[in-house]
Amino acid sequence: MSHKFKVRVFYEDTDFAGLVFYANYFKFVERARSEAIREVGIYQAELKQKNNENFVVRKLVAEFHHSAKFDDDLLIVTRVNGLRKASFKTVQCLYCGSKLLFECESVIVFVRNGYASRLPESLLSAINAINKL
Question: Which residues are designated catalytic?
């Protein structure tokens, strides 16, 4: 199981050739990952405000398979593929219909007061629940 997030390609997402500008794929998967985290009860603004905690991308490996274009309906599938003491790994696939357009693997680090820190048990449990959405 995994988290699913839909997005439509707007004209502003495209480049001169009418295809989605490459950097926007990263925006799409960031939105999807943020929504997955929110849906399991982790409110990132609250973490930042109360405890000066947040998540940062440490590593991202991406592969572009096909281009999305204006007005495409896209589906981003997010799953957690590894949970460590201070980080977790996500795998995200972006589809148009059944066609895989883009995929990436990210390492996300939990940061407290500017330094990588051990994830509290409550966050570990919640992050693990992303695969159950």
Answer: 15
Residue 94 has pLDDT above 90, yes or no: yes
pLDDT of residue 37: 97
- Which of 85, 80, 83 has its CA nearest to residue 119? 85
At residue 11, the 3 state secondary structure works out as helix
The stretches of the chain forming alpha helices (DSSP H) are 22-39, 44-51, 121-128
Q: Is the confidence at residue 1, as pLDDT, over 90?
A: no
Please write the tens of the pLDDT for every residue from 25-49. Answer: 999 999 999 999 999 999 999 999 9
- What SS3 class is residue 123? helix
C-alpha span between 16 and 22 (Å, rounded): 12
Tokens, residue 39: 């849906």
Is 32:75 a contact under the CB 8 Å cutoff? no
